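Last lecture ended with a question: if I hand you only a sequence, what can you say about the shape of the protein? Today we answer it with a concrete record. The protein is Putative endonuclease Z1 domain-containing protein. Below, first the input exactly as provided, then the predicted structure, then a couple of comments.
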Amino acid sequence: MNMLNDIQQSIANSVVTFFDGKSPTGEAIVEKTNQFVAVYGYEGSVDVIVRHIESVLSCSMSVGDVITDSTSEHNKNWPERILSEDKIYSNGYEQFLKHKGMAPIIVNTISKVNDEILGLLGDPLSSTSFQRRGLVVGDVQSGKTGNYLSLVTKAADAGYRFIIIIAGIHNNLRKQTQQRVDEGFIGRESLKAQIGGVKPIGVAKLNPQHPHPISFTTQEDDFNSRFANQMQANLGDLISRSPVVLVIKKNTNTLKSLYTWLTKYSKNRHDDKIDIPMLMIDDESDNASINTSQIGDDPTRTNSYLRKILHIFRQSCYVGYTATPFANIFIDPDAYNSETLEDLFPKDFIYSLSPPTNYFGPQKIFLKDGDGSEHISILDPYEVDRFFPKGHKKTLKVTDLPQSLKLAIQSFLITKAIRNLRGQSNDHCSMLINVSTFVNVQNQIKNHVDSYVDDIRKELIINGQLPDIEKSSEVIKQLHQCYNEYFLNDTKTDEELFHWKEVLVELIHMFGDSPKDYSFKTFVVNSKSQDALDYNDYKKIGKGLMAITIGGFSLSRGLTIEGLTTSYFYRSTKMYDTLLQMGRWFGYRPGYEDLCRIFMTEEAYFWYQHIANASQNLKDQVASMNQMSLTPKDFGLYVQSSEEGLMVTAKNKSRRGQKIELSLSFAGQLKELHQLTKDLGVQKANLDLFERLWDGLVKQNLRKPLETKQADVFQGVDTSIVVDFLEKFNPGFSDLNVLHFQKSIEYLDKIQSKYPKMDVTFITKNKTSDITTFADFNCIERKAYDKGEPFYRLNKARVGGQEDEKHGLDLDQLENGEEKNRAARYRRARQKPLLLLYLVKIKSIDGLNDTSTLECVPTIALSFPYGDNNTTVTTILANGPYINSLLDSGNEEDLVGEDYE
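The predicted structure:
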């Protein structure tokens, strides 16, 4: 969100409110903005306000998908009893979000989503005891905190009086979360609350009558039993007037202290239970909350205390929030006895959030059409490893920075200059460096970064304005080369192109005449950091912080790095959840998304492609389960085993997951052969196979009237013809991608009785005339990697584009597919399978053509509709409920697995 000053934000909010629910033209926005500019007496630049308004009004957001325990008697409509005038906290929070500049349509959708989630909790005013468990799955840096604050405010309005927010395992994240809670719920800075400070902030600044909840934690201090004891005698009276909220670390000592205090309070009460409705929000619930002990052993201490705290209340709800639920689904839902109590498996609901359209996430960076080069710079691991060897020790001596890291720093400084020129000089702008987990190494990197930036600053100040400076200044010459490589074609915004001389002048101005004149600072973020990364100090004076942040584990969970534009990533973990959480570069980048750049190795790039697919697959499962009215416990979930040697999650988190062979449906799946053989003979044979198939379909007069320049579509093709074609198609090599694709062919063969006809589409690149012979087809161009294997790896592990699967759908189906707004939207609308055929012109990642292959290499993809019960055998990592559902169905013969350790 842009850091407009107060008057700019007021003008923007007025215009956005005026156009709420409308789709104004650019001219209408400018006209209305100028009207409010006159009303407010504003004399500054209008362009930055208009750009902000356009960004806000262009956003949209869909409600998510949910699966619930449909067998229970829970009444999800109980929140209907809450009157509009009683929604004090939630109405205040929503007004606060709009005041900060969030699009009204996004605020309204967040409210609707959390109305639904609230209904899945227990009614706190009922006489019934309950222990409910749920999980909300979002995306990394997509606004989960804002979402659960909406739920917290609605729960407080509904009657929940004791709210615990568990905010990660590091204090910097706990403090950051406390600040958000202070702004959006409490209405004053909790660090001053204990000494009587009542200066209103956030929601209370907008409404001076805002009733302040009571906070047992502050921005400076975690839960403190001494302070809580001062309140204990009057706790019953306190909660009758205001809800109590705690923001605590996921730390065993803190949880033990809280449990001990609650136990003392509960003594001599009915059944030693606290008769206060309690809501527990577990942020990053896949981290440290999971019981990682061996099956049958006592739960780990953190997990045990979470269970005990929940159990001590007569009415309690646990809602976990995570972007990486790969560990949560391995929790044993049947783990319960009087000692260990009920575990945290989301037995009552799993809610999959949909991010807003302006979310800059894994799908957009790693999976969308295009080669990703506009955001990714590939690192040479041999160069980086000379400075930061994989597996290095804490004693490593850092003698200098890799040239690639110096280039990344140059890129960051130029990005900041361009953002200033775009009117974003008061916005925060950050860079991330994640190459080591060791504090000693991070501190050394900081010293070198400070020294390098200071060298650039001195060179700009002393020599920047001299004529022909690049002939004598190697530093400024390198900055210019960096600009030419990364920014020359990417800085055009609103018909405005910033030339190098303008950027150079801004770089000089940005640094000023002395270090005091600019807000640049380098931070080391870890558990031992003394200098906290705190953007609030700069917000208060209306100044944007320019920060380079260096860290390891602390950068891998939850911490928001505001205005992140440049990331330098060199880490070796292979766990799905850890890799995704390390992606601090995901989030919202209004007005500067095109400037964002990630420096990573080719190997890491492949990992993220695979994980992005796995994450989307998991969300698609939730949607599919919702359509089939299945429950979290009865059905379970599965996670596809990686073809690249990645681990789903840490082994101790997935002890209850087993690697098994089972009969698996490909319904609702797209299977692509995204690795292309190098064997010239195989390529020619497959090309001949393509031509014979096309000739045969033309002769059968099955061609759909030409409606597009990108495809030649045949409808009503006998599925047996396609199966015969696929069985003859030769991938030319064997690996897991090929084996999985061959399983999809077996699956197509099995569903012939249900789908005797299907569609076949030949994809071509913008044909300029009708296709009368097979030779008229144009190749589509794809970048690929050559890793010395018998095949090329297509960039992003994708062959086709996102719109390819719409071919063959009629207008009603297309409209239905568009409404779904998901990667699998067309598969939901499709009523028969689809074969996609591609002729790919291979380009290596460095842009050189490989002359040893055909100009157009044939490859294929299969798209399956939802809604059949046929299966084929594949290998997955599955949790207990999924396996139990198979056993309960009499499918023991499908399991041929060993325990996954």
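Comments.
1. The CA atoms of residues 65 and 352 lie 5 Å apart.
2. Residues 602-627 form the longest helix (26 residues).
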